[in-house]
Each structure stands twice: as C-alpha cells, then as structure tokens.
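In response to reviewer comment 3 from the previous cycle, which asked for concrete evidence that the modeling workflow produces usable outputs, we include below a single protein chain processed end to end. The sequence was submitted unchanged, and the resulting structure tokens are shown without manual editing.
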Amino acid sequence: QVHLVESGGGLVQPGGSLRLSCAASGFTFGNSAMAWYRQAPGKERELVAVISSSGRDTNYADSVKGRFTVSRDNAKNMVYLQMNSLIPEDTALYSCHFGASRGQGTQVTVSS
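The workflow returned the following structure tokens.
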C-alpha cells in the first residue's frame, strides 16, 4: 500500500525559505518518478515539480523556476522540495505524488 507523508510546511514571510519533505513507502521508490503539486483555495491543483527515479532529471512549473529545487534520497525513500524567495502566491497546500497516489499535504503560508 502506497503511503506518502509530507512535512515541513508552515508560515513564512515573503522572501523566506522552507524545505518540504515527503516520506514514501509501499512501493519501489528508487524506480519511481515523483512529483510535487500544490493547490490554493479556489484554484486548480498545479504541478510544481517532477523528479525522475534517479534524480537526474527535473522539471518545474514556470512560476517556481529558479526559486524551487526538487531532490530525492533513494536510500531514505525521501523526496524534498526546497523553496526559496517565497512569495504570497506560493501559499497553498503542497502534496507529493506517486502516480495516482498522494499524501495528505502540508500547508505553506507566505505572509507578512
């Protein structure tokens, strides 16, 4: 059974940074691409970043390019999202995904 647990969200001021983590279990993590999505109230869920199974290939939404970095540690079954230069528009519930499975998410709020 796929299990994904996100952590690391919180309240941060504009310009600040957060690092989200996702602990994965129940599947062959090292063989699996992973993705981070986010959803703000009243908006569609948005794909933020994708990372290949090896971690060598990544893709980002235009809105976060140059500010966010996705990475993974296959030895620990973990995927991360480093978020820098945060802006209020980044406020959303962030979740990690494997195929059709996703975690409960972690809330990120960017506000002064």
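The mean pLDDT is 97. We consider this sufficient to address the reviewer's concern, and the full set will be provided in the supplementary archive.
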